[in-house]
Amino acid sequence: MARLQRTLSLGSVVLFGIAYMTPIIVLGTFGILSTTTGGAVPSAYVVAAIAMLFTAFSYARMAAAFPVAGSAYSYVRKAISPKLGFLAGWAVLLDYLFLPMAIWLIGAAYLASAFPAIPQAVWVLAFIGVTTLINVVGLKLANTINIGLMLVQFLVLVAFVVLCIHYVAGDATQALWTLKPFFNGDVHLPMVMGGAAIACYSFLGFDAVSTLTEETHEPRKTIPKAILLITLIGGAIFIAVSYFVQLAHPSIEFQSPDSAATEIALNIGGDLFVTFFLIGLIVGQFTSGLSAQASASRLLFAMGRDGVLPQGFFARLGRFGTPVNSIVLCGVVALLALKLDVTTSTSFINFGAFLAFSLVNLAVIFHYWINGEKRGGRELLLFLLCPLVGLVADLWLMISLDHLAIILGLSWLSLGVIYLAALTGGFRRQPPEMDFNEA
Fold it and tell me: Where are the transmembrane segments (predicted)?
């Protein structure tokens, strides 16, 4: 039987995770977070980072216990029950299926602000069409494009921060180090929590490295360390960048919150830098959307192959050896971007993430504390209190989401319960188990 080679080190896995998170997204969503928090974006990222660290710890514990691909789906299925595992997978599917939509919507919003004569819908359709075509042709072409463009977004992110520092340093009335970006008279806890619920969108993907289990040296040690390091490094990047951007633009007034970073880029660097920034952001969104659509289509294909979704449609490959039906379906789903704004679309995706995160925290308690009976003093902290804090934080963030996003999220969850009932004959049978190793 063919096996993947274990060639990845801790550093390689961490770099993959950071790249998957697309750090430049902190600029893409800055305006939305600024208006939501009342000008305290760094505070939202601090809250989000703390909540995500507790959840990342739970992922790390479960990755050590079950060094297999499948992430939340596998952990909940093995630790609690196959049926609840299916619902965890259904929540993760929401992220995978709708993430390309949100990515392309953010990119389209910035292009529409740069070229107001062209409707935003045109840019959305262009993103969907080009990325779908590339992914249909195959991953080799997609990976070649991704590697060439990934460096650009990191250069833009560094340039943006440097120009923010230069802009603030040139103003004698502003201090470079101050708590104002975190606290001001207009900021209240519900506003920060609402912002943190959106800010967690930037952390999506910290758990994606669990899919590299079969290709990593000593996965029981390496993957848990990588998950925690990715969350820490990603959180540090988001807090630092948002701090300097908030310092350079303390106001919450924007022509368009969805594309606010363009206005800030103009203030700190002029017309030339706006062009440079826009290129970097669109490159970042394009490469991220390319990867997200590819990942989603492979998950749908795997679910079809294993009988979790209808095999006739999802388990078919096209002439290029790619799951064409699944790729095209992701593109069709992304058409919802024509009717949603960035806030609702990112919040909708976060609903699925928070649901999956909550179940993983619960899985730690079941696997170690309840079933494993690890109940000493140290275990009380590690396997009960920490996951409970993560669980409460995730649920609190979930109810802080945009109301429409909560309604859409609950609708998605209801569909999952109905489909699970049909799949299991009214919950009398166990659902089919996915074999991620073959993916």
Answer: 12-33, 45-64, 84-111, 117-137, 149-169, 189-206, 226-245, 272-292, 313-336, 348-368, 380-399, 405-427
Rounded Cα distance, 417 and 410, in Å = 11
Q: Which residues pair with 216 in a beta bridge?
A: 8
Is residue 53 within 8 A of residue 193, CB to CB? The reply is no
pLDDT tens, 244-270? Answer: 999 999 988 888 888 899 999 999 999
Retrieve residue 247's tokens: 């310092």
Q: How many C-beta atoms lie closer than 10 Å to residue 6's C-beta?
A: 15
Q: For the chain, how long is the longest CA-to-CA vector?
A: 71
Q: What is d(CA 382, CA 221) in angstroms, rounded to the nearest whole number?
A: 17
pTM for the full predicted model:
0.86
Please state the rounded mean pLDDT for residues 269-275: 91
CA-to-CA distance for 380 and 51, rounded, in angstroms?
Answer: 19
Determine the Cα–Cα distance for residues 287 and 297; give it in Å rounded to an integer. Answer: 16
Q: Where are the domains of the chain?
A: 10-99+171-267+304-323+335-438
Q: Look up the CATH number of domain 10-99+171-267+304-323+335-438.
A: 1.20.1740.10
Given a contact cutoff of 8 angstroms between Cβ atoms, the answer to whether 246 and 31 are in contact is no
Position of tokens 């943190």? 196
CA distance 20 to 87: 24
Instruction: Retrieve residue 76's tokens.
Output: 């909940």
Residue 8: strand, helix, or coil: strand
| Dist CA 35 CA 187 (whole Å) | 11
Q: What is the DSSP string of 49-64?
A: HHHHHHHHHHHHHHHH
**Terminal Cα-to-Cα distance of the chain (whole angstroms):** 14
d(CA 68, CA 220): 9
